[in-house]
Design brief:
Blueprint (H helix, E strand, L loop, with lengths): L2 H8 L12 H8 L16 E7 L4 H6 L5 H7 L5 E5 L6 H10 L3 H4 L5 E4 L4 E4 L10 H4 L5 H7 L3 E6 L7 H6 L4 E4 L3 H15 L14 E7 L1 H9 L4 H25 L3 E6 L5 E2 L5 E3 L4 H4 L2 E7 L2 E6 L5 H15 L3 E5 H7 L16 E5 L4 E3 L1 H4 L8 E2 L5 H4 E6 L7
Parallel strand pairs: 1-7, 1-8, 5-6, 5-7, 10-15
Antiparallel strand pairs: 2-17, 3-4, 8-17, 9-16, 11-12, 12-14, 13-14
Helix pairs in contact: 1-15, 10-12, 11-12
């Protein structure tokens, strides 16, 4: 292995170790459901809640722990706090797909915010703007963990925003069970607690047999939205973190008082975030040397996919690669699709997924974000908080046992 190959391989997420793709499957295993492997040492339970906090990187807890005393109390103890990896790229669609399916990006196929659909010859969005020509069940054919858990005998509940009830992303990676929706964070936590109580009502009658296990997915996206708009060191972001901390504490306290060790609540995240100053947000739309022979661009501002025309010659491809290296080689890891796959950035890559990955990838490690505004328009240039690349700030995420029960 060359020095360059070793450098690229060192950046790959630890898909076989502490990784977000094992959180939901481990939660299902902690309930005693057959067919799931417990990979993260989650405590056994009959009620397992996976709290997904969009955008809460491990470094952000470290920096703002004084504003999240409840979460930090779990984070500071090795018995209740771990650091896991998100996916490559470190973005919501890819990481939630890994959480929801237990698969690596190279298998579930959501390899970016927006990526090429080769048979359509256009870039398609993987979050809220799915192309109507893209069938979620065909794009991502692996059964979701929630569906598997439901088939295995668990009651399955998702608590999220109402608009996600039947969204393409939900159908692709989070299908299964019942859905409860509320727009406000506090309402989501109350709804989730009420649902747990309703599932296991108090009764004076003698119980017959073991209670039905419950697996709940609870989604909070306020920190991510606030970070994109205002930045992760802004007063607005701090207030969102404080709200999360207070609501999580009330939720765990309320349920813990009744259910004790029957309950496990674990917090995870899909990526971290860092702020990019206006002068670091660069539009490359007019950079001919960077776009020669390029048919499409995709991905995120800190993890750009570049797709060449099919008839772009090897010489042109090499020249564009060299142009990116010359301009930004000290600020980004720049490699070909084959190099990234060989390095394990996406885990094992299925043949159907390979062409969705850019021919050339630009993963930024400097204080920059790249925009192709000719394709996206100029509105994204206003985003302050950014993520997507393979830096620790973006890819390292917490796994917290909020009930105080230690990992095994």
């Amino acid at each position: 292995m060359t020095a360059r190959a070793r450098e690229l391989a060192a950046l790959a997420p630890d898909y076989d170790g502490g990784h977000v793709r094992h959180v939901m499957t481990s939660a299902a295993a902690s309930l005693g459901l057959d067919g799931f492997s417990e990979r993260l040492g989650l405590p056994s339970a009959s009620i397992a809640v996976v709290l997904m906090v969009d955008g809460l990187g491990d470094e952000l807890i470290a920096r703002h722990s004084g504003h999240a005393r409840f979460l930090a109390s779990a984070w500071r103890r090795s018995a209740t706090g771990q650091v896991n990896d998100a996916t490559a790229p470190a973005t919501t669609a890819a990481s939630i797909a890994s959480l929801g399916t237990g698969e690596v990006p190279g298998r579930h196929g959501l390899v970016g915010y927006d990526v090429l659909a080769p048979w359509l010859d256009r870039v398609v969005n993987m979050l809220g703007g799915w192309d109507p020509a893209v069938d979620p069940a065909r794009w991502q054919p692996h059964m979701s963990v929630l569906s598997r858990a439901e088939r295995g005998g668990a009651r399955v509940l998702t608590v999220s925003r109402p608009k996600f009830a039947d969204s393409p992303l939900t159908r692709a990676v989070l299908a299964g069970g019942e859905f409860l929706g509320a727009n406000r964070m506090d309402a989501r936590f109350r709804m989730a607690a009420d649902a747990v109580h309703a599932h296991r009502p108090e009764t004076s009658a003698a119980r017959q047999g073991s209670p039905q296990p419950l697996l709940m997915y609870l989604y909070v996206d306020e920190l991510d939205k606030t970070g994109h708009r205002y930045g992760v060191d802004s007063p607005e972001w701090i207030r969102a973190l404080e709200t999360l901390d207070a609501e999580a504490e009330k939720f765990v306290t309320r349920l813990g008082q009744r259910f004790g060790d029957q309950l496990s609540v674990v917090l995870t995240a899909d990526h971290g975030m860092l702020d990019i100053a206006p002068q670091g947000r660069l539009d490359f739309s007019q950079e001919e040397a960077l776009l020669r022979g390029v048919r499409h661009t995709g991905g995120e501002p800190r993890f750009v996919h570049v797709y060449f025309d099919n008839d772009a010659s090897p010489a042109v491809r090499r020249q564009v690669h060299e142009a990116w290296e010359e301009r930004f080689g000290d600020q980004a890891w720049i490699c070909t699709r084959d190099e990234a796959i060989d390095a394990g950035w996406f885990g094992l890559v299925e043949d159907r997924v390979r062409p969705r990955i850019g021919d050339l990838l630009i993963a930024v490690h400097g204080p920059l974000a790249f925009y192709h505004t000719e394709r996206t328009g100029t509105d994204p240039l206003q985003m302050i908080g950014q993520h997507g690349s393979l830096t620790d700030a973006e890819i390292k995420v917490p796994l917290l046992s909020l009930t105080g029960r230690p990992f095994g």
